[in-house]
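Recap for those who missed Tuesday's class. We walked through two folding examples back to back. For each one, the amino acid string is listed first and its predicted C-alpha cells come directly after. Nothing is annotated here on purpose, so try labeling regions yourself before you check the end of the notes.
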Amino acid sequence: MDGDNIQADSGLGSDFDDDFDPLVSENDPALPSDRYLDRELSWLAFNQRVLELAEDPDLPVLERANFLAIFASNLDEFFMVRVAGLKRRILTGLAVPTNIGRAPQEALSDISRAAHVLQDRHARAFEVLVRPALADAGVHIVRWESLGEAERASLRNYFGNQVFPVLMPLAVDPVHPFPYISGLSLNLAVRVRNPKTGKQEFARLKVPTMLPRFVRVDPAEGVENLRFITLEDLIANHLGDLFPGMEILEHHVFRVTRNEDVEIDEDETENLIKALEKELLRRRFGPPIRLEITESMDDVTLGLLVRELDVTEHEVYRLPAPLDLGGLFDLRIDRPDLHFPRHVPTTAVQLMPAEPNAEPDIFSAIGRQDILLHHPYESFATSVQAFLEQAAADPNVLAIKQTLYRTSGDSPIVSALIDAAESGKQVLALVEIKARFDEQANISWARKLEKAGVHVVYGLVGLKTHCKLALVVRNEQGVLRHYSHIGTGNYNPKTSRLYEDLGLLTADPQVGKDLTRLFNELSGYAIEKKFKRLLVAPLHLRRALLKRIADETASAVAGKPSGIRIKVNSMVDEAIIDALYRASQAGVRVDVWVRGICSLKPGVPGMSENIRVRSILGRYLEHSRIFSFHTGGDPQVYIGSADMMHRNLDRRVEALVRLVDSEHLAEIDALFTRAMDDRTSSWWLDATGEWTRHHQDDAGHPLDDMQNRLMQQTIHRKRPVGRR
C-alpha cells in the first residue's frame, strides 16, 4: 500500500516498504546502537492512533464506524505485505530488517502479540462503543435472534430471491478436496451430519462480495430508525436451505489473509506487462499468513482449518463477531448529522476570475505568479484538473507530459489526456503499472490511453516512478512556454477530496527545463543529473537532503541560527535519522511531523533532546511531504513525493520542488507552527515509541482541530479584484 493506495479512500491510509536493505548510515560510535524504533511496531502504533479516533465519543458516530473500517483495511494490508514479506524472508534466509535489534523470529512474535492486542481492542471498540452509539442514533445492527416473525419472513423472501441463487456450498470429502480459500473473503465453516448414516461432513460457504454486507431488515423504515443484519448472519440462519436433509451441527465464520505482494525480476523479463499479469494471477494463491475466526468456533472446526491452511497457532486470531469490520465502509446512510460537517473545497484565490461569472484562464493565472495549492481545502477539480482539461482543449498547446501513479480509469485526468491525443497533440503518460494493488487497473487504462494515441511508457527498469509531475508546452506568439505542476499527491480526483496534499503550479522556465530533462530520462535513455529547482531521487535527493541537514548542523556549531522542519508519511531511513540526531546534538531545533511510521527516537538526552515528533490524524489523510531548512534566514523549502524510506530515496523516481515565493514560504512556516503548537490537537511521540494523544487542555476543553481551522481559513479567502 504504497501509502497512496485507494483502499484508504475513506480516511487514513498507510505506507509499506518491502525492502530490507542494509543500513545506509555508517555505524556512528557517537550514537547508541539502539537508536531506532522498530518499524513494524511503529506502524501498529500508527493504526492504534486510527483506532483511538474510532473510540472518541466526541466524533460523529458514522465517522467512528468509518475509522473502524479504515483500521481493518490498513491491518489487512499490513499482513499482506509487511508480515508476509518478513515471514517469507525468514523462511528463505533472505536479509531481514537491520533496525529491529533482535532475532527475526522474535520480531515476528512481537508483531503477532501487538497485532492480537490491537485486533481484540478493535473488535471490542465496535461491540462496546460504536455499536451502542449507532443504536442511540437510530442505526441498529441487530442479530437474527432478536427479530420478530414478520421481519424474519421478509428476510427469508430476500434471501430466497437475492442471496440463495448466488451461494456455492463446497463439500469436503474424499471426492471433494479442501477448497481454495481466497484472501480476505468471508466464509462460513459448516459441519453437518447425515441423519441416515450418522456421518459428519464439512462444507465451506463463501459470503458473496457482490451483495450488501449489511442488509436492511425493513426497507420501508425511515433513515431516523434503521435496522441492519449482517449478510453472514442471514446466511447462517438459512443453512437448511443449502443442506436439505442434513442436520446442521456447527457453523462459524472465518477469514484468511494471504501473502499478496508481487515480485518481478525486471532484469530477467522481456515484457514487463505480461510478466506482471502472470504474477498477479499467482498472487491470488499466496500462502496464508493470518486466520481470523469467531470466538465461538469449536476445536474440531478450528483444527481442520489450521491443518488444511497450514497456519501456526500465532497466526490464528479469535475474535467476537462480526469479522471483517472493513465492511463498515458499506454502511452508507443519508444522515448528515452523523457525519463530519460537509466541506466544499474552494477555488484557489489566484485561479478565481476577476468577475464571478467569467471563465477562468488557468494559463494567465499561472503566468502571473507561482500558485501553491492545498488540497482538499482548495479544489483539485478547479485547479489541477482544470489545468489539464484546458491544456487538452487549447489549440496553442503542443504537448502534455504527465506521470500517473494511481488514478481511476474513468478519471477526467485520463479523459483529458485522451482528448489531447485525439486532437493531435503530443501526449506522454508515464504509467506506473507496479503501484501495489492497483497493478491490474493501471494496466487496463494504460492500454486505453495507448489506443487513443497517447505515448505510454512504464518508467525505468528496477525503479518505481512515484513523482507527481505534469508539464504543458504552449505556443505563445511563436515562443514555447512551459507550464508545470509538481505535487505531493496522485492525479486522482476521488482521493483528492480526502487526502491532504500540496501542489505547485508554475510557469517558471527553469522548472519547465527541469521537467523536460526529467521526462526525457523517464521516456528515453537520457541521464540528466543537474536540476535547478528540483531534487530528484534516486540520483541525488538523499545526498541533497543530507547536505542541507549538515549545513544546519554546521550553523548551530558556529552559533548561528538554524532549524529543520520535516513533514512526511514515514520516517524510517537510518542515514536521515542519524543526520537529524547529529543536528540535535549540535543544538538544531528539529520538528518532525509524521503521519505513520517513525523509527526516530525524540527527546533522548545527549542524542535527540532538540527533536519533537508530532502526528495529526483526522477527517483527512495527511499526505503532503515538506522539507524546510532555515539556511541562515534564507529558507530553503521543498515539497514533493518522497518519504524518508529506503525505497523512496534509492529505488524510486521521486521529485521535490523548491518554493521561492515569499508568501508560499510564509504559508508553509505557519502550517508547521500550527501543527507543532501545544494548543493543536495531535499525538506526541516519546523516546520509548509511545504515542500520547493531546486533544484536551487541563480543563477538559478540546484543543484546536487543525484541519477544521484550515477549512475555515480557505472558505473566507477573498476573490481577487482589479485584475487586468
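Example two. Treat it independently of the first, because the proteins are unrelated.
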Amino acid sequence: MIMCNSRLPLLFFYAILLVPHVSHSLVLQRDPYVLHNCSTSGNVSSNGTFRANLNTLISTFSSNTQIDYGFYNFSAGEGTDKVYATGLCRADLTPTDCRICLNNSGHELLQVCPNEKEGIMCDDLVSKLTEFNEVLSTLFYDLRVGASAGGIFRKVAVGNATYLNHTIYGLMQCSPDLSEMDCSNCLVEAQSYNKICCNGSLGVRALAPTCNLRIESNQFYGSTLVESLPSLSPPPVPSKSLYPPPVSAKGKKSNTSKNTIIIIVAVVVFVVLIICLCLCLRVKKQRKKVENVLTCYACEAADEISNTESLQFNFPTIRVATDNFADANKVGTGGFGAVYKGRLSDGQEIAVKRLSMGSGQGVLEFKNEILLMAKLHHRNLVKLQGFCLEGNERLLIYEFVSNGSLDQVIFDPTKRADLDWPMHYKIIVGIARGLLYLHEDSRLRIIHRDLKASNILLDDEMNPKIADFGLARLVLLDQTHSSTNRIVGTYGYMAPEYAYYGHFSVKSDVFSFGVLVLEMICGQKNGYFRNNKNEDDLLSYAWKNWRNMTTSNIIDPTLGVGSKPEIIRCIHIGLLCVQENVADRPTMSSIILMLDGNSITLSVPSQPAFLTHNNLEPDISSDQSILASINEASITTLYPR
C-alpha cells in the first residue's frame, strides 16, 4: 500500500488562468509537473478580436509591477469579445518569480488550447527537484543502513535531512526476524515505489509485509524513539541567549556531569577509531595474502595438467600476439573487460580475455576459472591455454573459437536465417553434453551458475563450447544442493530458488539450459521478449502455446516446417527444464536420452517458473540487491569464501 502526500511546497508554484468566467467541463491532462485543461464551450479564431484581447491581457500580467501580493484579476475588450483572466501564485513566491510563472503559463495555455474559449493552466516549478531528490536519496540510504544493521529485537532507524529551509523526517523499519541483507532488500524495493509513484513528494508511506518506510515534513515519531536510537542526523544548534543564566550550585553539579559525559564519549570514540584502524590494516593484509596465494594456486593447476605444457604466459608474449591489444584485434567486450584475437609465434590462434582494472571479476574469480578450466577437458567446453598475471594485468588465454558467441547468431535476423534446424539441434545437443560432463562425467562436479547464450562459443564447424567459468562452483559428487548469500549470474536465466533464496544445484543449470533452448527456438531473448498480443514473458508464452497446441506461434519462421515434430519435442523438453519445482526438472543425463530419440515418453509440464511474477522487469534484478546482470555480461564482486 502506497500513500503520497502533497509535493514539496518549496519546489513549485502554480498559476491559474481562466478565460472567461463561464462554467465549463473539466478535462485534465497531466504530465509529470503540469496540469491544464481546455473547455468545450466554444471555439475562437486565432486571428480574431477575442484572441487579440487575450494576448493583450496575458502580457498585462508580466508587465504589471504594481501588484506584489500574487493575485491578478484583469479584463480586456468589450461586448462578446471581452476577455477575463485570473492569475494566482503561491504566497511564498517573490513578485518576480510570480510574474515569470504567469507569463510562461499564459503562453503555454495559448499553445495547448489555441482555439478554445476557456482554459486553465497549473504550472509547477521543479527546477530544483534533482537537488531535492539527492537530499532524499542520502536520507533514504542512511535510514536503510541504520535499520538493516539493527539487532534481533528491532530493526528501525529515524533521522532527518534539511533542504533549503525545510526539514524532512524519515523512518524505516523491518521485522526483527529478517537478516541484514533481507531487510536492506525489502527497503530498497519499498524505496523503488517512491521513484515510480511519488517522485518529488514530501510525504511518502510504503508499507510491505516485512518492512515499511515513511517520509514527512513534520516529526511524526515520538521523542522517546529518537532518544533510544543512534542519531542519523546532525544535532540542532542551540540558540544562544543574550544574557547567560546565573550559575547555581545545581548548575555546577550539572556542568560536572556534562564534563564527565564528554570525557567518556571522547574515550569511546578514540577506542572505536583504534578498532577501525586495526580492522582496515587486517583487511589490507588479507587482500595482499590472497594476491600472493593466487600464483601458488595457478602453479598447482599447471602441474596437474602436464609436466611439459605450462599455463604461465609472460605479458610481452601476449602483447606481441595481440599487436599490443590493437582495436583491430578486439572481438568482443564483456562486463569484465575486452577479448582480443591473437596469434602465437608458432601460428596458434588464441583468444585473450583481458580483465579491466575496474572489473567486477576479482582475484578469487580469476583463480577460480584457472583452477577449474585446467582440470576440465571436453569437446563442448572451451579450452584454457593459460594465463598471465604481471603487475596489474590479469589475462586468461583460451583457444580461439572462430564463429563467436551463440547470442551473436540466434538473435541476429540475418545470421539466424543461415542457421537451419539441424544446426540448431546440433548446438542444443552439444550444450547438453557439455553440461552432463560438468555435472556427472568429470572427476569434479561443477555448477556453472551463468549459462546463457553469450557464454556459448561456436567453432568453425558450429560445435558449441561452454565458456566463462568465473562464477562456477565446485560441489561434492554426492552433494545435491548448496546455498550462498552472494547471488551472482544473469537475471532471466536464474532458477527461482537461486534468485530468491540463494539455493543452487545442478538443477539450476538445467533451468538455464531450458531458457536457452526456448530462446533458440523462438529467436528472442527471454529478458527482452516482446509479444504484440499480451505481456507474457517468454517462458509463460511458450507454455501457454504448448498447452493450447499452438506452438507455431513461438517457432522462429526461419526454422521451416519440415522438422516441426522434433522442434515441438525440444519445446517440451525446454518447458520441463524451467519448472518451478526443482524436483520436476530432469537431470542432464535424462535430457540427453530425451534428445537422442523418441522412445522416452515425456511427462506433462506444469506452468513454468515466474508465470505469476511476470510483473517483474527482467533487467533490474527486481531491485533486490542481487549481484546479477542483464543478458549482456555477468557481474560479480570480490568476497572472501
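Answers for example two:
The chain is about 35% helix and 15% strand.
The two ends are 39 Å apart (CA to CA).
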